[in-house]
Amino acid sequence: MTDVRVLYQGAEALIEKTVWHDLPAVCKHRLSKSYRLHHIDHLLITQRTKEEAKLMMHARQSGVSVPLLYDVDMKKGCLTMEYIPGSRVKDMLGTLSSVQQHQLCQTIGGCIARLHNNGVIHGDLTTSNMIIDDDQLTFIDFGLGTLSHEDEQRGVDLHVLMEAFESTHSEYPDSFKKVWKGYEKAFDGDASCVLQKIKDIIRRGRYR
């Protein structure tokens, strides 16, 4: 791999744009933590790398667009995947007409429902982790995700997105309601149970 360029460095991972067999790619390196015992650090990095790869495969099986995985190196804690061009929803939502915003929010909700139908909890649902390219919505960064069919986990997932809309897109106060309509329509189970969990989470937050 050559022509490496750092896209983002966070506390947990280093994200680089690179080339994989002549294809533009992204390499996500999980970072070692000096405060952890070496064998525990290695075990955690290996497990989390494996889990993220598994979640991405489950997400793709659910019919949601995610980057193609090119290589999984659990020993090094590295995922090499397809580079997705386009814009983050965070950056382009404000450039859309009200009709386009409505359609996009419903699409987001439908995709999340399909993830949840297949037991995939994203773990970090923000508009920074959604990319639009030629009307194709792609979800990225499943590093905090898990597999679960529990309504509590689904509610937490959606509550994260609700808070993201409130903080990042406060000028569009009805955005999450539109997301919910798309979710409710595509969810296989009883969406009212998930909605109740969101309300419970909000109530618990008020009384902390």
Protein architecture, described:
- With 208 residues, the protein is of the alpha+beta class.
- The chain folds into 2 domains: 5-82, Phosphorylase Kinase, domain 1; 87-206, Transferase(Phosphotransferase) domain 1 (Transferase(Phosphotransferase), domain 1, Orthogonal Bundle).
- The chain is built from 6 helices and 10 strands.
- The strands form 3 sheets. Strands 1-2-3-5-4 form a 5-stranded antiparallel sheet, with helices on one face.
- Helix 4 (151-168) packs across helix 6.
- The protein is globular, with a radius of gyration of 18 Å.
- The model has no long low-confidence stretch (mean pLDDT 93).
Please provide a brief summary of the model.
This protein is an alpha+beta fold and 208 residues long.
List keywords for this structure.
208 residues, alpha+beta, Phosphorylase Kinase, domain 1, Transferase(Phosphotransferase), domain 1, 6 helices, globular
Sequence-ordered SSE layout with sheet pairings:
Layout: E1 5-9, E2 13-20, E3 23-30, H1 38-61, E4 69-73, E5 78-82, E6 87-88, H2 89-92, H3 98-117, E7 120-121, E8 130-133, E9 136-139, E10 146-147, H4 151-168, H5 175-186, H6 191-206
Antiparallel strand pairs: 1-2, 2-3, 3-5, 4-5, 6-8, 7-10, 8-9
Helix pairs in contact: 3-5, 4-6
